[in-house]
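Um, can you check?
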Amino acid sequence: MAEDHRAKTYRLMLLRHAKSAWPDGVPDHDRPLGDRGRKAAPLVGAYMERKGLIPGLAIVSTARRAQETWTLVKGILPPPIPARETRDIYEVAAPAILTAIRAVDPAIRNLIVVGHNPGMEDLAHLLAGSGRQEALARMRQKFPTAALAVFEFDGSSWEDLAAGGCRLIDFVTPRQLG
């Protein structure tokens, strides 16, 4: 059977980890969520569920706060959602996150990445070529903890993801949700 090279719509969700705690003597990678983060992450999960933003795969940083964020978000979503845990998106710039995304199987059409700033915010700014003006303005102003940016692009695989090539279809923060 011939491979289908027609353009398809891909959806990318970038989720910055929820607000973390800063316990004394705990290495950055091992910092847990704080109270605010434990409240915010389920709000984002509930929003995703209401809007039908159900990923087929999650790429999640191995940092504890990102893992805890994803656990709380996915607990609201219909299972199962496979996750790929990787240190490759911890403390890295936008191009490294983009590389991880481009390696995803093209059969996966809805992807969430749970990571950290500044890489997540920089990647969101890099990808946004068009979209809802109000959402673009809010995203460019601030990308706080537990913020979710939802992009779409047309292509034949994740390798087609390019700077300025995405439509920002939604941007939501915990403050808007509760």
Q: What stands out?
A: Helices lie at 35-51, 64-74, 94-102, 119-127, 133-141, 174-177. The two ends are 49 Å apart (CA to CA). The beta strands are 8-16, 57-61, 83-86, 110-115, 128-131, 148-155, 166-172. The chain has one domain: 8-177.
